[in-house]
């Protein structure tokens, strides 16, 4: 008999690891062992772990060169990381909207005080934009925060625990349908015969919970927030929200990105995901189980 598990616990154990770019940790295709290696470590189930396991349950790469940073620098880095990187990589570096879990990144594991992370932040890679406007001190603080988060992750024994979908199937689908169409207000934006048709076939277990609670992660990604900035002259600038913090807001993409002092402008942010974020504070664990059960029926 499988043990059931609350969704709140399941999320803490593994939802941040689902669909967030574990390419660097994926097992390579099976093949002949390298010369000088008897039998091949992977064939014996050793090395990086059993390929049949969930990537979330396997330990990530260990830091090659252990390093520590001043607490003040780490705190500053946390604030800058949240403002500039948290949208994709999550506030705690454990993965977010299309961005991988940095505590399980091979590049971070091999980095020594920013020798690999800093150039990547400045120049970008693939869909990740470069942040050439950040100062050396800001980047160093981000590096300190990332390494501190990885050190904390490594201090936890073992990898993330895998969660079997059967452990989550304790809700009532009829109650979930009623909540979806009633108190939850989900049907105002979603339809079982429209955008959610077949979602129970495309996603199962933690992947379905992630799509339900944190739709900014996974694929396809939802539309990014848009910002409208009204300057003192009355001119308005509208574009994708790149980042914001207590003092500034950055709008646009690539070379067209521009930052504005919040005290000098008026601004409005239109975030299609705001209803989901608001809903997180309203769900009970029973509501989440019930909606999960209902979505699982949409095959």
Brief descriptors of the model:
299 residues, alpha+beta, Cytochrome Bc1 Complex, Chain D, domain 2, 5-stranded antiparallel sheet, 11 helices, globular
**Beta-strand proportion:** 5-15%
Uncertain spans, ≥5 residues at pLDDT below 50? 12-57
| End-to-end separation | 26 Å
Per CATH, the class of the domain at 71-154 reads Mainly Alpha
For this structure, the CATH topology of the domain at 71-154 is Cytochrome Bc1 Complex, Chain D, domain 2
- Structural category is alpha+beta
Mean pLDDT: 77
Description of the molecule:
There is one protein chain. Among the domains are: 71-154, Cytochrome c-like domain (Cytochrome Bc1 Complex, Chain D, domain 2), CATH 1.10.760; 165-220 and 276-296, no CATH class; 226-271. It has 11 helices and 5 strands. It has helices at 7-14, 71-84, 86-89, 106-110, 117-123, 136-154, 173-181, 199-202, 206-213, 274-280, 285-296, and strands spanning 226-230, 236-244, 248-251, 258-261, 266-270. The chain has a 5-stranded antiparallel beta sheet, with no helix packed on it. Helix 2 (71-84) crosses helix 6 and helix 7 packs across helix 11. It is globular. The two termini are 26 Å apart. Mean pLDDT is 77; it is low at 12-57.
